[in-house]
Amino acid sequence: MNQRNRLSLMLGVAASGLVMAASAQAATYVVAANGNGLSAQQQQSISAAGGRITAHLPQIGVAIVESDAAGFAAAASAIPGLASVTADVRLQFDIPDHLSITDGEIGPDYANPPGSGDNDVRFELQWGAKAIDFAGAWNAGWRGDGATIAVLDSGIACLHPDIAPNLDLASSTSFVPGEGVCRALVGGFNHGTHVAGIAAAPDNGIGTIGVAPEARIIAVKVLSEFTGSGDFAGIIQGIVHATDAGANVINMSLGVQGGLPVGGAEIAALVNATKRATQYARKQGVLVVASAGNDARDMDHDANVMPFPAGLPGVLAVSATAPDAWGLDLAGADLDLPASYTNYGRSEVGLAAPGGDFDSEVESLCIVGGVANPCWVFDGVFAPGGYAIQGGQVFASYSWAGGTSMAAPHVSGVAALVYGKYPGIKPAQVESILRRTADDLGQPGNDPFYGAGRVNAAAAVAN
Fold first, then answer.
1. Where is the signal peptide (predicted)?
2. Which helix (H) or strand (E) holds 116?
3. H or E segment and range at residue 55
4. Are the C-beta atoms of 196 and 219 separated by less than 8 Å?
5. DSSP conformation letters of 309-368
6. Known catalytic residues?
């Protein structure tokens, strides 16, 4: 196994530690009521205890509170009708480098290969399109029109030409203090942009094409683009915001490295508050999709941790598939091998989808879509990455990456195709369609690596 590729080039959002979430002035608390919202008396009592409510979510009976009072948690916990008062926890995320061929960014000369058979000039680099048959769904007339995908992530490159046409900027927002939802115009890779592009980059003759190229994108920033950190409060608010903003699908390519430790009242309370948000989303007709995680962990036999947020009830967890040296055999390569890093287990995985991998040992040169690279490069998922600045000009950039973070938006895109075909369909029905029409790989039935199977776009809309 090529450890260089697996460890240094695998991309996924992965938390390396847990710390208390607090600003220099005040600590943040997640307060859950027994009912659907905090009463006026409860709000007054929180204020009297030294708290300031920064967000009240009566939809789920949760409030986000700041306080610099040393005894706030104890005082607020004594307020009648509150289920929990818990200091928020920040997940310190580590986003590894995406794959580059020169200086950390795919420049325009490389990202615009000539001679493509599709009018989007980078489409030939998208092996995932063949694996799950994007074109079969499009040829049947279903391209995601009328559906909305909310991407909860590290913001988005709002002016990227393969993002902007489908981005609903008015509905997009940030829950990361001090950071806007739009990524700054600087060099570097942006995880949220890559994820959004996989799901819904438009078919505009410029670059790659998303699974649902006519779906609307709502970007909801819950992770800092600079530090990679995010907290439960931001994720909870992001889910509720996306739901109320009209999302049909919420994509969370997020995952705690090694899993979230179970046990302990504080973490349990924060997980339960997040569960309220995901359950609210589902009740409002939203399918919540999450990456299964990148630890190569057997979740059927690890009771000490839970995949978060993929392990929450009602969340569809997605594992990752990839080819091995696809560039050597574009027509015949197996595109459905379990990725070397993907978490697995019948208790967790709902579906599989293209996530990419850089674990191949094949170093020989391959040429795909007019681009020459070591063959293993092309096994990654190619999608919008952010911006590059060259000669004082700003260029859109594209990047290869690999992780369950890349698999989840493939499923979210297919779900958007189904929502586009069946307006008003319930998330349980969408999930049922995705499972029934997936290609049953591995062991017959529910497989540890593939779940119900590898998602199939054409079959899903033919249902």
1. 1-26
2. none
3. strand 51-57
4. yes
5. TTTSTTEEEEEEEE-SSGGG-TTT----EEPTT--B-TTTEEEEEE---------SEEEE
6. 153, 191, 405
* pLDDT 10s digits, 263-279: 889 999 999 999 999 99
Question: How far apart are alpha carbons 291 and 213 in whole angstroms?
Answer: 21
* pLDDT, tens only, 238-257: 999 999 999 999 999 998 87
Of the candidates 382, 398, 390, 393, the one whose C-alpha atom is nearest the C-alpha of residue 160 is 398
Closest CA to 458 of 424, 427, 413, 426: 413
CA distance 164 to 183: 12
Supply 85's token pair. 């008062």
- The rounded mean pLDDT for the chain is 88
Q: Token pair of 338, please?
A: 């379990």
Q: Is residue 240 classed as helix, strand or coil in its secondary structure? A: helix
Q: What is the largest CA-CA distance in the chain?
A: 70
How far apart (Å, rounded) are the C-alpha atoms in residues 345 and 335? Answer: 20
- Phi and psi dihedrals of 331, rounded to 5? -90, -30
- Residue 343 in contact with residue 293, Cβ under 8 Å? yes
Tokens linked to 463: 């249902």
Banded model confidence at residue 25, pLDDT cuts 50, 70, 90: low
Which residue ranges form the domains of the chain, and what is each CATH number?
A: 22-87 (3.30.70), 99-462 (3.40.50.200)
pLDDT of 95? 56
Residue with tokens 């007054």: 44
Q: How far apart are CA 145 and CA 213, in angstroms?
A: 8
Q: How confident is the model at residue 92 (pLDDT cuts 50, 70, 90)?
A: low
